[in-house]
Inverse folding.
């Protein structure tokens, strides 16, 4: 694929994403717990799906197991019914003060909130979210050491967890 066409494809596949951390729970939320360990550094302890001004808001709840060794990003791939990426968004994992993961300490808890809005070329609807943690400087993923969430069975196995049937609007 030509570089310009590839850049347009990548740009059109990213979701409208507003990442933030706050103490406000999503409106009309549904909450779930998780026991997912990424590397030996971060634990995804739960998530919430809610509505924020007509759009889907996701909250990921994290606990720091050991001081993170990098400024990690969380990536979220919204998969269509065939398992292909419909849209995606990576964002730095930050606490409420805006500090990135390398400054966090063991025992810290962080709530990461972001809006999942399909881009103009995608319809609202049900998607599976594929979630992982990576270091953009080294392009290395934190391995999923344990989880009670579904996992990918393809090339993403042991690098991501899945949250199924999320209505993105």
């Amino acid at each position: 694929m030509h570089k310009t066409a590839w850049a347009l494809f990548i740009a059109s596949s990213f979701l409208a994403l507003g990442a933030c951390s706050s103490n406000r729970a999503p409106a009309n939320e549904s909450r779930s717990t998780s026991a997912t360990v990424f590397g030996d550094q971060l634990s995804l302890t739960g998530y919430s799906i809610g509505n924020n001004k007509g759009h889907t808001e996701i909250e990921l709840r994290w606990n720091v197991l050991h001081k993170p060794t990098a400024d990690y990003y969380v990536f979220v791939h919204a998969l269509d019914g065939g398992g292909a990426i419909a849209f995606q968004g990576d964002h730095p994992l930050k606490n409420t003060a805006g500090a990135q993961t390398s400054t966090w300490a063991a025992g810290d808890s962080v709530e990461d909130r972001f809006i999942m809005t399909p881009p103009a070329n995608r319809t609202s609807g049900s998607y599976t979210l594929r979630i992982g943690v990576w270091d953009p400087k080294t392009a290395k993923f934190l391995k999923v050491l344990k989880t009670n969430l579904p996992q990918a069975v393809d090339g993403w196995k042991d690098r991501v967890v899945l949250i199924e049937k999320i209505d993105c609007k």
